[in-house]
Amino acid sequence: MPPTEAEGLGDSFYPFLGNGGYDAVHYEIDLDVDPAANTISALTSITAQATKDLEAFNLDLSGLEVHSVTVDGAHAEFWRSGHELTVQPASPLAAGSQFETEVAYSGSPEPLDDPGVPFAKMGWIHRDGVVYTASEPSGAMTWFPANNHPTDKATFEIQVTVPEGLVAAATGLLISETTESGETTSVWRMDDPMATYLAAVYIGDFERIDHGPLYDGGPITRDYLPRDAPAEMAQALSVTPDVIAFLEERLGPYPFDAYGTIVMPFPLGFALENQTLSIHGPATIGPGIIAHEAAHQWLGNSVSPDDWSEIWMNEGFATYLHLMFEAEHFGADFNDAMTQVHAWLSAEGIGPPRGIEIQDLFGASVYYRGAATLHALRLRIGDDTFYEILRTHYDRSAGGTTNTDEFLGIVEEFTGSDAVALVESWLYDETVPAFP
Ligand code: TRP
Ligand code: ZN
Fold it and tell me: Which ligand gives the minimal distance to the CA of 113?
């Protein structure tokens, strides 16, 4: 096997996710799915730019059988070891050149265990005749080969073929749907940068409910419900336009071409902010969690963490905004709500959201102490400056990635070092600080 660039990007929790030496620009994922057997026959093409001279490079792919790999149409050698797929093109790639890799593969996708998500299997899930993907952080590689880290975002086109009668959905804007010889093929396009963990496919007996553009020139909105869903489910989702309006007022225009929710026909116990099409379980949908996944479209999806240890930048911010929406929606006093969160954090001795262990990636420190961190900042500096900071934080990194230090830089820019010290105590001190 030839020497390759780094078999990982050095993430502090997932050092072997992603790969060095190139930059993915566009994915085309073409899946032919037999949902009854839970098998796929797939072709993924990855347009990428070499950032160095490359004799070989790696992709991340877990399980499945790889049949062939080509680079710019020419046969390429490949090797597999764990989730590393090493590819050696017929001739070396020059730094700066663009190249297209096609991977033909098939099999039964197996979800994986991710140490950061002890509460769920990751990636491609087959359950009760339904297929869905839930990949944050590492599961995308269970269904397509990729540079599997949020620092390498790309545009996507996802094509799914299923037996006629079933409905497939995916992240992005639906651009075509055709039925021929008993099979339905649908194509979705994501023209804005997307992290691999936010790409998703869903297959089942769903009904698509089109609501059209949210407002003139706004995102297309559509939801997918189980075909026999009770009316209360559509009713629960009808809060979505209010949620988007609430978030646009605080963060700026919705970042993508489409938004909506897909509800599974079985309990999930979690929701996930897949880009433009969040997944929910039927028992848990309500204004708070709908607002939470919607808020991630700005904070998490458009602005993503540059390292998985920065996860409070997703979850703390989304939680803060969802608590705010919930209070407004139910006519509760938001400051009282945050005072209760503070009392709970103190009583439970919830530690800081930075310096966590991997199994606490999606734990209370990250969500609730993360949210309270933002509230403490707001109490110290006042609403106007707080919202300027929030908006600047979003604007500066929209379509890319960020981290805590960049956020602290913005806090410093608008307020001076006192407020930075306050935020740092919330993020790093073992004990829960008092609210200002
Ligand atoms: N980001 C999800 C949220 O909205 C939580 C989450 C993380 C998750 N990884 C997941 C949910 C994997 C389902 C599967 O808070
Ligand atoms: Zn979240």
Answer: 1
149 within 8 A of 14, measured Cβ to Cβ: yes
For ligand 1, whether the C-beta of 270 sits within 6 Å is: yes
- The residue whose C-alpha atom lies closest to atom 6 belonging to ligand 1 is 272
Rounding to the nearest 10 degrees, give the CA dihedral for residues 214, 215, 217, 222: 10
- In this structure, what token pair is assigned to residue 270? 């979690």
Ligand nearest, relative to CA of residue 317: 2
Q: Which CATH architecture has domain 1-204?
A: Sandwich (2.60)
Residue nearest to atom 14 of ligand 1 (CA): 134
Q: Which atom number of ligand 1 is nearest to the Cα of residue 120?
A: 14
**Burial class of residue 81 (count of CB atoms within 10 Å of its CB; 0-12, 13-18, 19+):** exposed
- CATH of 213-218+227-299 among 3.40.1440.10, 3.30.2010.30, 2.40.160.30, 3.40.50.1820: 3.30.2010.30
382: left (phi over 0), alpha (psi -120 to 50) or beta: left
What is the reported pTM? 0.97
User: 114 CB under 6 A from ligand 1?
Assistant: no
For ligand 1, atom 3: residue with the closest CA: 272
Ligand nearest to the CA of 114: 1
Is it the case that residue 8 has pLDDT exceeding 90?
no
Q: Where are the domains of the chain?
A: 1-204, 213-218+227-299, 308-428
- Model confidence over 53-101: pLDDT tens digits? 999 999 999 999 999 999 999 999 999 999 999 999 999 999 999 999 9
Q: Which CATH architecture has domain 308-428?
A: Orthogonal Bundle (1.10)
Give the pLDDT of residue 435: 98
CB of 273 closer than 6 angstroms to any ligand 1 atom: yes
